Structure formats: C-alpha cells, structure tokens
Amino acid sequence: MFKATPNPPDNDPADSAALDKAAADRALDYYLKPKSSTPKTDPGQLFTLINGIATEALLANLSETLASANAMINDLAFDLDGSRRHVALGILQLVELSGLLANRALDNVDPR
C-alpha cells in the first residue's frame, strides 16, 4: 500500500528558532519585568505630589509649611535693621495672611 508523504515545510529552521526565542523573550519580559506604574513626569520638575491625596491632608500640610515659614522669617526679621527688616516683615505678613487663608479653607473642608 502506498502512503502519500507531505512535502517538508519551506521555512528555514534558523527562522523558527529566532521566532521561538523572540516569543520566549516576550513571555519572560511580561512576567519578570512588569511595566512601571509610576506616571510620567516632567524631568525638570523636582517635587511632585501623588494623585489621590485628600484635600484636608493637602491643606493641613500647607498650614504647617506656612507656620514653619512664619517662624523662620520672624526670627530673621528681628535680626535685621532698617529697610531689610521692613522687607522681612512684609514677607512675614504675606506668610501670615496665607496661613489664615489656608486655615479657613481647612475649616471649610473639615469644620470643627
């Protein structure tokens, strides 16, 4: 009895080895090198805030930062004389007003 034998495939074994290696590399990269979930940021930006921070937490940190700036400029203003002292006191007043605004906004978000 005669059995028909199909012709061998036309593709080169080196090509199939390269395809197998590429598929294996993709599979290993998928499982062993997961994509980073960090968002793309501007490389010129030094500080960033992550998304999803509550407004209350942002305002509380703003209030604390302004209180620190107030203490520093207050200490500096009383070490200066003349027009430099007036400039430092003007900055102190701006920081103090900003602190009052931040605290009022914090009270509006979370009334006590």
UniProtKB/TrEMBL annotation:
What is the protein name given in its UniProt record?
Answer: DUF3077 domain-containing protein
The species is Pseudomonas canavaninivorans
